[in-house]
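> tool_call: predict_assembly(chains=two)
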Amino acid sequence: MQEVFASLGTGFGVALAPFNIMLVLIGCFAGTLIGALPGIGPINGVAILLPIAYGLGLPPESALILLAGIYYGAEYGGRISSILLNVPGDAGAVMTTLDGNPMAKRGEAGRALSLSAIASFVGGTFAVILMSMFGPALARFAVTFSPSDYVALMVFAFASLASLVGKNPWKTLMGALIGLMLATMGIDGNTGVPRFTFGVPDLLAGIDFLIVVIGLFGMAELFHLVEQQVTGKLQTLPVDSSFVRMADLARTKWTILRASIIGFFIGILPGTGASVASAVAYGAEKRAAGADTSEFGKGDVRGLAAPEAANNAAASGAMVPMLTLGIPGSGTTAILLGALMLFNVQPGPLLFTQHPEIAWGLIASMYVGNVALLIINLPLVGLFARMLTIPQHYLTPLIAILAFIGVYSIVGNPFDLFLIILLGMFGWLLRKMEFPLAPVILGFVLGGLFEDNLRRALSISAGDWGILVESWKSLALYGLAVLAVVLPATLSYLNKRRARDRAPT
Amino acid sequence: MKIAALKYCVAGLLLASSAALADVTAPECIAPAKPGGGFDLTCRVAQTGLAAQFDKPIQVTFMPGGIGAVAFSQFNTTRTDDPNAIVAFSSGSLLNIATGKFGEFTENDVRFLATVGADFGAVVVRADSNFETLDDLMAVFKENPAEVVVGAGGSVGSQDWMKGALLLKSVESSPRDMRYVSFEGGGEALAALLGGSIDMVTADVGEVITHLEAGNIRVLAVLSPERLDAPFDQIPTAIEQGYDVEWTIMRGFYMGNNVPDADYQTWADAFAKAYETEEFRKIREEKGLLPLNLSGAELDTKVKQRIGELRQIARDAGLIK
């Protein structure tokens, strides 16, 4: 432990150099904006700015500090358009729309933005602390997760998300199936056979997650707005100067802590990232709330705090295997890994001994960055919230333009622009029929991971299903899954009985 | 004064360009993928390495879609004679052409132009694996191939799978008996190897170097035709250990089929000249590629022959009929 503090001291020496502080601030600010724009998320922000950072001729630790600032800044920023516009700013912010947007609709955008900023701060900082203390050990543990353990993890995720079942369980189930169907399109990762591509070469690589999110959520939301405007049903939102209250923080403190832990651990697993982490955290939180879930999905502060704490914790968690083992835990960290190699720095176990100034400088800069993001974000809450006072007939086309530019700047294929319109109409139709959209997204993400890992596990065991229950990690996760289903039911039963006992007869 | 100097410069440039090149006025390198991947890298090598060969900088543009199929079909339909544009390819693209993933068009519908470098396959196990040498591994592959769980970043039928299939074939086992697990990229496969889920990874030399230095893994063989330079000079090739398996991952460019010969030659010469420069060597090394210099007709012939071989392997393995 002594050693960690000494190294961290070295790190802060690097991170607190005035030039690097400036880079952290620039990175965090740019990242917040990038995250807030619908369509452009951390992965694209970092990919686009990497050549610029390299071209500036910065020393490696400074360039990495800048890029990392953009990375977690974007995770912060993603919540802004989720809350204000019901359009997720990036993949990890999908769950944030569920309770964040209803809050904004009821005139509490400021409260939602400030609470989620604090949740993000706690999640991010918590993850960095865990990373500095136990990073290498955790990374070594994370790689022992075998495909069969991932299957168990996905079962746990589905079990905790069963709580998303809304008014109509059948519609939820069908939504998840639609998501799963979308995920199967493209060349099958296992056998190389194209599935459901209908001979269209553009579909060979499958549908990008970003396209699904922007289409089903963003475009559908726009169509919905236009429809409301045309039919004159559009309500003007109340002008908003609300802010997070102490009572909110008191109510969500355990939520944020739980979600931070969940987010961090899912983040360090290679292959799962912020989107899975926020979904599981949301589901777990709704489960943990027991009988008291009536407000979830309608603007519950817990439903907002959980995914935000989790996706920021996951963003930092994903850095752990990247730095300590040279194995990226997410798409964005894969690009950061590429950035390190560009500067001739080899990530991996030797990074901490060969280039402590880079490894620890980066970690220390994450402490600084989280504080900076909180300081940048809280005063801007009022400004962001005022975006809602922009008249709808300006706002709608503006979002549409941003979404189109965002998508095109990243995928650069006009086919995908048609695809988001198509998915948008589909999403709008689903909404008309009162299908919840979150299960579609979750079916897409979790279903894809579930299928891949199940088939990997079965390839390893040559078809023996026993492999699924071989390791203690799998068994523990199945145990948690059962708990996630049984516990809330039991709790609510006990609560009811207690209430009945107490009631005078 | 300054303005006058600038004028001379511009005039000089114009003269030079009209003299040197017929039609290559706005060189463009198309990476048929999103930014950040291997095709992007291939174009960057050309952009920096050929900077001295053209008056104008080479523009890098991205044309993602269908693992390169979108670009391939565009250069077979609307841009068959574009003299300015070169499109990045890798051995993976060649395999896709061979197995018919790119639809109706084949290798004879484009002209292969030049390479920028290569990477080679590597047979990788954990540092504490029971397989001490390639012979240990191959003995099991011969007797009971299903005992070894092979993993890699590609799907069945991908380059990574091919490397495993060739290893099995070299000891007369059927590739169909291989227990192959595909992961999302080489990083995840190496994680699964380190975590003990799989026994062996058919990786690329370029992606294992960090782990080699850290002492986590053992490379039983490199799948190059000859021994590589340091830091890989201690690792024997599969061929010198008596197994006829070679896997070169070639990175380079193709052009449309109807590009005028003169323009094709301009590009090919530009590459041939660039190979000799220090800038090219430097950028190639920076991007983690090993030397492989082939341009013009020589490459075109070689690539087309290679695709023929790949098609045969794929047919033998039952991937195509």
